[in-house]
Amino acid sequence: MTYVDGFVLAVPADKKEIYRKHAAAAAPLFKEFGATRMVECWGDDVPDGKLTDFRMAVKAKDDEVVVLGWIEYPSKEVRDAANQKIMTDPRMKAMGEEMPFDGKRMIFGGFAPILDV
Q1: Does the N-terminal or the C-terminal CB of the chain have fewer CB atoms within 10 Å?
Q2: Entry's Pfam families (predicted)?
Q3: Helices 16-32/76-88 angle, 10° precision
Q4: What is the pLDDT of residue 1?
């Protein structure tokens, strides 16, 4: 099975195309570092919860949309090596300085799949 980095973030609604272009520019770098797949999903039906929800998790503002994404790797080892490269690659650093969202409110983590049907 693969290994997955998952993330949720809030993006200003009027920056959808800027975000899409930002993600599209990053995708080849993630693939260069070992990713096999990268998926970005623009929130379309993200309901408010009573106790918790996606919007609360990233402290989304009224003018922001929740984005859900994941990056697949062949293994945790490949993902860990990719993360090291991401932290030191000057191209990624330059992209990080122009993120069209507040990275401090992004939630993320690594996940080992337990079912893939």
Answers
A1: C
A2: DUF1428
A3: 110
A4: 73
- Domains of the chain in start order, with CATH, are 3-65+77-111 (3.30.70.100)
CA distance 20 to 18: 5
Q: Is the predicted pLDDT of residue 89 greater than 80, yes or no?
A: yes
- Beta 107-111 vs 3-12: how paired, if at all? antiparallel
Sheet holding 107-111, edge to edge: 37-42, 64-73, 3-12, 107-111
pTM of the predicted protein model? 0.92
Measure the CA–CA gap between 89 and 84, rounded to whole angstroms. 9
Query: Which of 58, 67, 75 lies closest to 111, judged by CA?
Result: 75
Contact 79, 3 (CB under 8 A): yes
